[in-house]
Every structure is written in structure tokens, then in C-alpha cells.
Amino acid sequence: MRVSLCIIGVFLFSIARGQGSESITLKESSILILKLYTADNFLTTDLQRSLNAEGFMVKETDTIPSSDSLAIQLKKFGQLWVVSDYERHLDSSYLEVLKSYLDSGNALYILADNEPYNADANFLAKNLTGAEFGGNFLADMKAKASYSSDLACNVVDMYEGFTVSSISMPESVKPQFIGSEGQVFIASFHHYKYKILLDGGFTRMYTKWNAGSETYFVNAAVWLRGG
Question: What is the value of pTM for the model shown?
Fold first, then answer.
């Protein structure tokens, strides 16, 4: 198992809070990836392999459950990763499910891409964090970390994604990574029990996978888990 210094640091921080590794449950280390975008028929094989190596259990699905069914499924998962499509699939009933899910101490990762692939991402982000995705940035280069990033430890030469969107920055949202055109495209929201990551470049999940992307996504999963 490859354990980054970032993970060790978070682990030591957890111990300092009296939350050692024995307190990490199977649910907290379980991730459900809900793919609303399916046009590329993409698989997150490399991503799942990297997360599995760090002790995470990952389930990927492109079947959109009813909001009631999603609420039942989420009882087994500590993180939900939502990959947005160009049209909205989720309504207010899903939003209420996710609010309850976050209130219970779970985490959410919202992944968008260039317009128009931000429909559900914007619906969720605006209602839960106040932030918004927008724009069409031809990326296909290396991202750089924000000076105050919580997710950048050991991340070297991370691929941005083929095209990306930017994220508006209300005071409640913290920048994490900057794209090659200077726009914030990864940000975080941590308020009360809500722990949410916002990402404007979901093609990075399955395109030009490299060590930088691998380390970033492991860091993201650990941050969302809280250690």
C-alpha cells in the first residue's frame, strides 16, 4: 500500500483529536460514484485501483436511482461523487436527500466540466455552497495548487483535464487548484457538518491518468473522509 506523507499527516492529526485509525469505519472509507454523464462510456478503472490501494471501497454506477432509492443506497457510503451531465437529472427531492446525508457527517464531491456539462453540478453547488461552475477553458495542461491548498501534498504535474470550467468564489468557498488560464477549477467548502469538494474538470478521472492525478484523488478522498 502506497501511503503519502499527506495521508500520514492527516492520520496523525486524527490521533491528536483522539480519532485513530480504529475509528475509521467501512462506511467512511466507501465511495459511491454516480455518473450522470455517460457519453464517453468512461470507466474510472485507474482511479478505483488507486483508491482501493489506500483502503477505499469504490462503487461506480451510471444508473440514476430515485431519490428514495439513493437515500437507502447512501447508508452504505461515506462519500458520494457526482459526475455532472449537460442536462439536469436531479431535482429538489435529491437535494433534500443530500442535505440529510451531509448533516449526518458524510461528504460530497461535485464534478463538472466545461459548459454545458455542469447542469446538476450547478444545481447542487449553488444550493449547498453558493458557488457556481461556468466557462469553457481549453486546458489539457498541468494544474497548479493554490498557495493554501489542503489537497496538494505530493501532487506533482497533475493533469487539468481536456477542458474545464471555472468556479465562482463566494467567501464560503476555498480555492484548491488553479488551471493553466488562471481560473480556480477545484475548490472546497467546509462549514459545520458539510464537507464538499467542487471540481471543474471531470475528464481528469479517466484521461491522461498520471501520478499527479492519482495522488490528488487519494488526497481528496482522505480529505473528504476527514482522515
Answer: 0.90
